[in-house]
Amino acid sequence: MSARLIDGTAIGAEIRASALPAVQAFTADSGRPPGLGIVLVGENPASEVYVRNKVKAGSDAGIWVDLQRLPAAASLDELLRLVDRLNASDRHDGILVQSPLPAGMGKHASQRVFDAIDPDKDVDGFHPVNVGKLVQGRAHLKPCTPSGVIEMLDRAGIAIAGRHAVVIGRSEIVGKPMAMLLLQRDATVTVCHSKTADLPAVAASGDILVAAIGRPAFVTRDFVKPGATVIDVGTTPVGDRALVESIYGSASPRLETFAKRGSVVVGDVHPSVAEVAGALTPVPGGVGPLTIAMLLKNTVAAAQARAGARA
Questions:
Q1: Do 54 and 151 share a domain, yes or no?
Q2: Residue 83 to residues 111, 117, 220, 253, 292: CA-CA distances in angstroms?
Q3: With CB atoms counted within 10 Å of each terminal CB, which end of the chain scores lower, N or C?
Q4: pLDDT over threshold 80, residue 290
């Protein structure tokens, strides 16, 4: 068996294209495009790439994207003051603060920032108000990666209702909201984590398996039920050539990429899973483009809701 690859790049492009009429209509009615403020603190190489892709995608869709930078030495108070300014701005309909934040800001910095963002501008869906609405099944702004996975499953023709879905990972950003969204689509959901007994056996009971733990190639063939749909959310840069070769093999084209860039992005799912799974998302080109597409969709939705509230 060779798994069908689910093309996240193509699906993401479909979603972005479907958002264009709404962007154009909002711009015509409001006299300005929807506005997205992105805050990047420091110079994390992976974050630089992610933010560059978000800025380009937003600009291509006709959204005004305002990138605000702070140095790595910036204090948490400085960041919170910037968030307050964006909250008060009429031009910014959505606000996103790129994670991770520098360690010097403190252990709970990200949560304090999420709490400070206006819930109506929280296009990441991380504010406690939006999390509570998500649990109740009435969220207006849903976390981008989990909602992108649902879109991907729908557009790939993968049934969710009545299926057993296993989520590996219980993060506030992906694992927990992913479980909520799958449950709301009538899946039977199991959430696994580092304390789960016999994790491979539990994972292998899933018709849909979502891996979101940030551990390169952790999910191997014995984690996967034959024919299952496997969604790989992991995107870990690996700079160890020996590790890359052990995962992909000495003849893999990924080694050419490694030679050019000094690292490659590796998912949570081992390549050998393709021999067992029925459908599989690649890394790169799988979930990542959906995350960006849903960010743009959330920005338009936030702009429309704010305009409606002022009308």
A1: no
A2: 13, 6, 41, 43, 21
A3: C
A4: yes
Residues 114 and 154 in one domain: no
Using alpha carbons only, give the angle 252, 254, 260 rounded to the nearest 5 degrees.
Answer: 130
The β-bridge relationship of strands 236-238 and 264-266 is: antiparallel
Clarify whether residues 166 and 249 are in a common domain: yes
150 and 273 both lie in a single domain: yes
* Segment 44-64, tens digit of pLDDT: 888 898 999 999 999 999 999
Q: Which residues are catalytic?
A: 54, 98, 124
Judge if 238 and 154 occupy the same domain. Answer: yes
**Which pLDDT score is estimated for 4?**
96
Does some domain include residue 135? no
In a domain, 311, yes or no: no
The count of structural domains within the chain is 2
DSSP code, position 6: P
Q: Calculate Rg over the CA atoms of the chain.
A: 20
Say how far apart CA 197 and CA 284 lie, in whole Å: 30
* CATH classification of the domain holding 194: 3.40.50.720
Distance, in Å, from the CA atom of 269 to the CA atom of 271, rounded to the nearest integer, reads 6
Are 290 and 12 contacting, i.e. CB atoms less than 8 angstroms apart?
yes
Instruction: Report yes or no on whether pTM surpasses 0.85.
Output: yes
Q: With respect to residue 301, please indicate whether it lies within any of the assigned structural domains.
A: no
CA distance 109 to 102: 9
* Cα separations in angstroms, 150 against 179, 238, 287, 296: 11, 28, 10, 16
Helix, coil or strand: residue 94: strand
- Residue 79 is part of which domain span? 31-118
pLDDT beyond 90 at 308? no
- Give a yes or no: residue 17 inside a domain: no
